[in-house]
Amino acid sequence: MKSCGDIDVQFKNIIQEGHYSAFFAQRRVDYRVSFAPQCSGQKLVVRVLDTANAPLHIKDLHMPAWMLETMGHQPQDQGMILVTGPTGSGKTTTLYSVLRDVGTGRA
Fold this sequence. Notes:
This protein is α+β, with helices and mostly antiparallel strands.
């Protein structure tokens, strides 16, 4: 796993991160790997980023109706919407879906 992510295998007492891609029948899947030192060795975290299964538009996120309406109909010309949550909860996916639909009337 370390060699795939171009991580130096000799270091075990520091946090190391890397990434790599794998190609499967007409699609690419990206992997992010992270190694962290532990008392009994190292902890490995692998995040699978498969864009083929990611929602593309706001409606694909299956938000509650009131939230979808709030996201889609902002009459102000300025403001801020916060997207928060823990690692892997979909913050980036949500933001990209919203950006794809800004000004298109899809929301």
